[in-house]
Specification:
Strand content of chain A: 15-25%
Domain Aromatic amino acid beta-eliminating lyase/threonine aldolase (chains A, B, C, D): 14-294
Oligomer: homotetramer
GO molecular function, one term (chains A, B, C, D): lyase activity
Low-confidence stretches of chain A: none
Largest sheet of chain A: 7 strands, mixed
CATH superfamily of the largest domain in chain A: Type I PLP-dependent aspartate aminotransferase-like (Major domain)
Order of helices and strands of chain A: EHHEHEHHEHEHEHHEEHHHEHEEEH
Shape of chain A: globular
Number of domains of chain A: 2
Pfam families (chains A, B, C, D): Beta_elim_lyase (PF01212)
Radius of gyration of chain A: 21 Å
CATH topology of the largest domain in chain A: Aspartate Aminotransferase, domain 2
Keywords (chains A, B, C, D): Lyase, Pyridoxal phosphate
Helix content of chain A: 40-55%
Family (chains A, B, C, D): Belongs to the threonine aldolase family.
């Protein structure tokens, strides 16, 4: 039986082969635990170099929710909240992990998943101007994703404007890069790792969705910002005994530009699918240049698609139309992309 | 010097004289602590009777935020959130006290500060229908205020509809009655204490804004719902050593219908001010029958008012108009109401 | 029927008459809320003066557990714990209020309820010397009580030694003064309010057990230590709407040396009872100079006492003897002390 | 250069080769996330079978601290604490992870790392007998490890006695099995997986230290005990996107009795080292039958050992002697054991 094409999400397979190979090769080597091993040291150095930030504190965690929870909890004061898009991962899809740490997510409306400097500025200034602000949650941090949940990208000038507002108001800026490889690889993108290191208080480079088995690399450009990070991580139940496993993954991802290659392949695939949608007259829900393609389909189209392809239901658009999502990734097979394009064009 | 008229809020003075008198009379009597004294027992009995709920667990706490924090924290499971109006006190004005307990406030838009059964039903059903709901915050409770932050009232049939949705979906219903005396006293109101006891999982009868020095009386109709309440209260830093002080206040407020009288006086005053606004052509921001009067004033009117009256700035309506609030209470003087009406009519 | 003598604890009655009188006099005056009123301002000034610390941040909270919870939570980093005596209030009698804020109490054994500088130093140094310290709870604060739970006192030199260790290791020092009046009034005591202000990062002056209805005054000598304190207090559900009530109490307690007088009377009473115990041959469980008298009684003595006096059971000493406690306070009547002495001497 | 022999701990290498092999074989297969894949289903079935508990809820988490944190947090009520040995992992080596969830660890002294039924019974009964118990932390759970931190084992009758006390007092029983393979493999052990499933409310089968790369398998015999477990795990930042990775590891460990074999090899090695210590006259610090060997060495012996072997410093015994630890594991090489024995015997 022919299995279906699967474009449901970007974590369908295991890990990039280089990572598995390295795990095999080093499996028997005895190393110290908790990230004190030489491979982790090497991975840290590679990331510092990629970010052009030799002094950065770099930490490896296991997943996105864990990373957001720990970073928000440790960067905020106990009485502060985090500004985020209403569609942001921390607003919707983390089962209350941020509130578990005691912090409110201050949700703002956006058209395309992107916060802008002006609305952030107003939110912060409104807080301080309110006569009752001492009774309200103080904005202490801005959380954005690059790319966003909706696949859209911040331009460098947009990010600079946000960073400027944050600095001006002593509010931290944190960037969730769960899918960062797919931002970095877009021709439209002008935000580099070095830019992130210059503009943010902290950000993370996604592994889980970008070629790793699991793992996210947190970069904190100012190493004095969060002392005692090991204890903070341990207290959150997030310190991996065999830290080498995280080290291996990022050492491989940042060797020979693998992280770039992974992103580029997925973007090429995504663009090919976008072209097919356009040719087939399937409207894109909104334009975005990254690895997620959101398009509108009728009930009949959705049914027909379902027979051959696994995709994501995103949301109902109206009684007739539905928004669906295809995702490409480092592991997407070229032949599957072509097969999907044929299916789309035959709808 | 003539002091200004003060209608800024409903906690401007100390306590109803009966309460102070009782404190004086009983001051030297030695009593056991933490609410185990006979006056507290008497107050509990009076409240059970007023609620027509002889088996209810009744607890006295010190303030509204504390009460909301403790009740939400103890009624919810750790992974649940509380549905509230975006304008609700727990959404805006409690400095993150709910999130401090680990819970997300699931904020819904409302026209007039009131949630309706339909939107609650949809919120809960949307949660369970979402394929990703396990990654989202489960609605575990509905929080409403009677009257709302905007002074509006739920009718009995509205409350019944909400209670029905809650029961149907095994979601708790909690009513914040910080200003409950001013709801109970409205001719428009058809929700009694007994109705609240029948429809809610818990509610509180406000003292601070309704004649007490401080204190709120929590009513939990099913006494098996929250065992070990004393420990829960203590753990939240909210167990008053001299519990008698809370007992005295509610024993007095519920003696000889004082709580009713307090409410009625404030409503009479509020209605007199509403009439003056109407006569003066000051538009009411929205109609409500309780002790808060929201009206629209021009810059010139606001300036003129400020010379003689202390009131609350609510929010800017547009470039020309501002929403301001007058509040009456148990302690409002008749002569001040008349003076205020004259000022309003002379704008 | 003659009621029993009551020496069960130090919060049996209401408040010192001066406080009630002031509440009556100011009851009708309209004041702003949340501690922004002029009486609170005056109380703050009086406390600053009594502590010889004009710049101190002074805050009024409602009870001891609440105060310990808020101060420990706000002075510690999220990953730090607080060193305390195993018999300390935060270790035993706060129903997990410290852990509710996320912090471990690092309990140390003591002979008499008092920590000493040497054991604190060793605890901190052992932490840092441990190869696994990053996996352990970092000591961030020392919590002591003056007087201790067992009524014993720290001398100035003992306190200086502890403060020295704390400064040296960048660990905060916090003193719980729930019964501070009864320490200050002892002839044996050489630690003044000004000493506390010089040696501690924060301490509180107890009201509840020392003449107030309720309330504790937190003194933070360095006002830059804890910015945004109002929001912190609000978030913990501890901001009293009618802050004036706390202001009145401490304004009265610190007017005309009332706090001193209150303490002295209770100490005179306690010493009289101690003498009676000695004359009657009742061994004191341990010597202490403050308002709590711990003594050993046989079963027969305990039974006989119980007929005429309410006292506290402390703990079983052995099969024959029991430790019981008498407490005096600001409200103890001279005639009751004499009656108790007679009862004791007739055992 | 000849590297040193390494007996520092039981997580020095990667994973058992079978696990890596399976990861390679399945790497390209597309599977759904978050533990909904067929390999995870198979692993769950194998564990249910090994525990003779077909209805058990089985969940895979990433590490020991995370597992203890989540299970303690979800099994306890908010106002309850967990009873543990003072030497227990949750008492000492989890950086406050339990307190981060809001719970106190109620630490009891033990001679050998093992709690006994009698002291647990007394602790619980003392709590309820205390007149002030409402102000104290209610014991809600007993946490023990099999084997303990000190390598000792609970016998079946000891475990039954503890379980009996727990049931009698409605207190949960949770067993930390981080090194469970090394307990199960001891000839001295009479506690099977099926016994654990019958006697505990929850326990976990350690992977990290027993052949896995990472991962622990939680077994909850009564599947109705903790509904909404996925959300609880997600909220704690512990839901692995590619859940298959955990599934693969436990599917392999429980295939063809691999988990048993792993344990047996390590125990054989440990016993060989114990014999060498005895022959060399190195006193064992205390007898235990599992994979950790604690022995006493003089300064000279320690120095000599250090040149050839990596081991753990445990604690200073006195001015002359030190307690050190050797650990064996699934990955210990026979030739290294022999070399270590020679070194020991030549001290």
């Amino acid at each position: 039986m022919k299995t279906q094409l699967n474009f449901a999400n970007d974590y369908l397979q295991g890990a990039h082969p280089n990572i598995l190979k390295r795990m095999m090769e080093t499996n028997q080597v005895e190393m110290t635990g908790y990230g004190t091993d030489p491979i982790t040291e090497s991975a840290i150095e590679r990331i510092r170099e990629a970010c052009d930030c030799p002094q950065a504190e770099v930490r490896f965690l296991m997943g996105g929710t864990q990373t957001n929870q720990i970073m928000i909890d440790s960067l905020l004061q106990s009485y502060q909240g985090v500004i985020a898009a209403k569609t942001g991962h921390v607003s919707v899809h983390e089962a209350g992990a941020i509130e578990f740490g005691g912090h409110k997510v201050l949700e703002l409306d956006t058209a395309d998943g992107k916060l802008n400097a002006q609305q952030i500025k107003e939110t912060i200034e409104d807080y301080w101007a309110d006569g009752n602000h001492e009774h309200m949650v103080m904005p202490g941090m801005v959380y954005i994703s690059q790319p966003t949940e909706l696949g859209t990208l911040y331009s460098k000038s947009e990010l600079e404007a946000i960073a400027h507002v944050c600095k001006e108001h002593e509010v931290k800026l944190f960037v969730d890069g769960a899918r960062l490889a797919y931002a970095l690889a877009c021709p439209e993108n002008d935000v580099t790792l070095a830019d992130l290191a210059q503009l943010c208080d902290a950000f993370y480079i996604g592994g889980t969705k970008c070629g790793a088995m699991f793992g996210e690399a947190v970069v904190i450009p100012n190493p004095r910002l969060l002392p005692y990070m090991t204890t903070i991580i341990k207290q959150h139940g997030a310190l991996l005994a065999k830290g080498r496993l995280l080290g291996i993954q990022f050492d491989e991802l940042f060797k020979d530009h693998l992280y770039d290659t992974i992103g580029q392949d997925a973007i090429t695939d995504a663009n090919q699918i976008r072209q097919a949608c356009k040719r087939a007259g399937l409207p894109l829900y909104f334009e975005n240049p990254t690895n997620q393609i959101f398009c509108l389909v009728t009930k009949e189209q959705m049914e027909k698609l379902s027979e051959k392809v696994v995709f994501s239901f995103w949301e109902k658009y109206d009684d007739e139309l539905t928004v669906i999502r295809f995702a490409t990734s480092w592991s997407t097979r070229k032949e599957d992309v072509e097969a999907l394009c044929q299916v789309i064009e035959s709808l």
